[in-house]
Amino acid sequence: MIFNSIDYIVFFSLFSLVFFLLKPKFRWILLLTSSYFFYMCWKWEFIFLIIFSTVVDYFCGIKMSQKSIQKQKRPYLLISLFSNLGLLFFFKYFNFFLDSVSLVSDITYEPLNIILPMGISFYTFQTMAYSIDAYKGKIQPETHIGKFALYVSFFPQLVAGPIERANKLLPQFQLNNNSFKFDNFIIGSTQILFGLYKKVVLADLIAIYVESIYGNYELYNGVTPLFATYLFAIQIYCDFSGYSDIAIGSARILGYNLMENFRTPYFSKSITEFWRRWHISLSSWLRDYLYINLGGNRKGNIFTYRNLIITMLLGGLWHGASWNFIIWGGLHGLFLALERIFNYSSKIAKKPIILRFISGLGSFHLVCFAWVFFRSETLAKSIGILTRIVDFQNFFNLKIKDINIFTSIIFNILVFLTLERVVKKLIVKKKINALETSFIHAVLILLIILFGVNEGSQFIYFQF
To answer: Which residues are designated catalytic?
Structure first.
């Protein structure tokens, strides 16, 4: 069951109705069973991995709460970390590890037929954050195993985030006082519709064009693969932020607040600013639980640059078991380290608007350069595409295979830029104008009907 499907709309509508009819003290049970059902619609066997992770981290949290000094807590933290990382390593990285070993040795192996469990990178990071916070005394471990299980498996954000912190989400499950609020419904439904528009119209339309170029990159050069790369930048933003909008909107209707995951990242003036605005729940996780624990910026400049690069290399590896993802992460680590060396992010913020604009344009192109490695399946293909981009023979000859799709993309990008500002303003408003929101809903529904791609493709980040 994916968000951009009739199945999810029916499921969520029926669930919401029963949720608000049920007595508040029983709602957590409905939420938990529905979250498990939601996940089992994909592959029922993998629900046992979520239950395993839940039981291990619940047990470790309780045991750490019974210890008064860090040394006594440490074994339980290690159990949590090794259990979650062990799951992640086996299902996501085992074949990649063996493949990498075979490249530098005479060892040959038969790859295992391992299916990557949906959402495993997200819920393992969420539960590890819980255990680390419990170890450091930042939170009081949850004693109610059912509500802790709900924290691990809450269906709106289970398979692709946002990666929530225990001190933000768990208290919301403990209150048991959610009542239906019209403002929550209007704001949540607007976010859901806008997320669907971003996914089924923009992201899926652009995907058709990008695949036609990247899938046959040898046939194109110059501005054609360059333009496809620009479009992929928009595609992945609309795809992932569209998912986040649907997740946040679904939770909002039920009365729960999830963290903001994107903040117009392509308007950033530097790469440092970009990572404060792109996939915020992951970038803040990497900062708080990896970068700072490596030493952050506390041990001098050289160690700071090292820590930035290591953090982003591992952030790239988190996205997938591929050298392309590692290179993508390494490039961003290098960009961040260089900006740190020259104190670029702070300096550019004080410059005139024209220089900030030029800096933003440059940052966007660096991000797009790295996206080539993210989008391509192999390193050879990445290099091939970059080579074709800098082939200046007939550089400006933009080749368009399907003028109708191309025109629809350009039109919807312009509409999107207008709608995003309107929807953002609506979400932060304290008073909701029924006429205004009805008009926005009607426009979004009409655009989805007219331009939506009907195949119901998965969100890109579901594979991570």
So the answer is: 319
> What residue spans of 320-378 are helical by DSSP H?
323-341, 344-348, 353-375
pLDDT tens string 392-442:
888 888 877 767 888 888 898 998 988 888 888 777 765 667 788 888 899
Please say whether the beta carbons of 207 and 456 come within 8 A.
no
Q: How far apart are CA 115 and CA 44, in angstroms?
A: 13
Judge if 101 and 166 occupy the same domain: yes
What domain range includes position 161? Answer: 6-177
The closest of 124, 136, 106 to 57, measured between CA atoms, is 124
Same structural domain, 247 and 367: yes
Q: Which of 177, 211, 242 is the last residue of a domain?
A: 177
Cβ proximity of 335 and 366 under 8 Å: yes
Dump pLDDT digits (tens) for 127-148: 999 999 999 999 999 999 999 9
- Element of type H or E holding 190: helix 182-196
Q: Does an H or E element contain 149, and which?
A: helix 145-153
Cα(249)–Cα(66) distance, rounded to whole angstroms?
38
Q: With respect to residue 197, please indicate whether it lies within any of the assigned structural domains.
A: yes
